[in-house]
């Protein structure tokens, strides 16, 4: 097994996740099998209980793992299926060590950060790296490891120590360190400054790790004299210093790495140069070029409560982008804060209210993504009502589907107090209820999570046709509440059809309004399995409906 470690310096948010994913892409394009691990130094066991404002979206895996959004990048870039163990956190490591101590596995020894925590980290990496993630038998050839945070962070010190020991243990030719750093340009002098990267590398070397490759983030390509200076002071060959300058879309990043021979530098350090070929990235080139040339816009109104941070809906955005490329249209996302659609905002901030409704009414389609809590719910209900009454294509995901049910019950069934027990535990008409198997005392890992099967009750419906006229589909879930099965008969008699259900027939998974051009809700999260070459069916169809005013029945590949 060969290992590529990606670390970051100077500041956070440099794009280590995209860099690690892109390294995986070029290695895979050279004919190697690749797996990925993300290390997050926070004490949380997983990302499940974190606010999207804190850490971006929570990405969900097939096995129900609630993980960092970078694992979504790995899956999309490499077209692989990871497991919860591919996301290592300080919480998981300490929990495993403490559990062993309680069982007596350490035979009475004093349990310490070194060697017990550092050994646990190394053992976890080695174990997970051997698990195949590409559907083939046997382990991958290369494991790309991303260390979250920035070199020098106190919480990442045990991982730095462990990785230094790990590099020594696996030996030369089996370990390559790629350090992502910042080369800023001061506007006053217009000169690329190398000191931040020099200090970052010095700190890395002090901690026992020496970079083999420098990946330098900058607004423009590095000048030759800057590369020479970095090479001299960081002890990295100039040929191994890569520029990751600003580009028009992230699909250019693997091409940047290839054009600067980054794959050769990495493969040489891993003793794999003689057994691999040149990277074949024709599809990536075509996709990057296509994304740059799209000019005919389609506007999708994203109605949510976390619109101030686009990473909160990263997978939804990527799924929309995948679909837009298939339809050869330019994606324009109109961010609509759901609270701005509410009557209260009309009184307190009339300008925000008018701007939000203008964006909503000017959109070709409306998407209400998942979320938790009652803030902004009324605005989402108003958005669903506008889409239903005005025949605007609508896709509701998770909470978005539940919102559509509440709106329908209030407007069509005339149940004015219809609500979810999440928002009103005492409602007399609970359209959405807490799942019987859920926990009301523990939040972490207690939802309905991971890949679950949805069976189509009727094949002749929009969603089944988009999935290729299949009888069932497997999609990923993350929810505590579900549509009340006691109200289904009444809702269906009024025209709201639940065509997708679980194996028991009592848990609603997909709803449609048959007399609407495209009004669909999904209890699952179709965005988590969307890929550039295989757009999610439900996202693809909203584009087709926006563009053509009718349903496209050609399934996604």
TrEMBL record:
Its EC number is 6.3.4.2. Pathway: Pyrimidine metabolism; CTP biosynthesis via de novo pathway; CTP from UDP: step 2/2. One of its GO terms (biological process) is 'de novo' CTP biosynthetic process. It catalyses: UTP + L-glutamine + ATP + H2O = CTP + L-glutamate + ADP + phosphate + 2 H(+). One of its GO terms (molecular function) is ATP binding. The keyword Hydrolase does not apply. Catalyzes the ATP-dependent amination of UTP to CTP with either L-glutamine or ammonia as the source of nitrogen. This is CTP synthase.
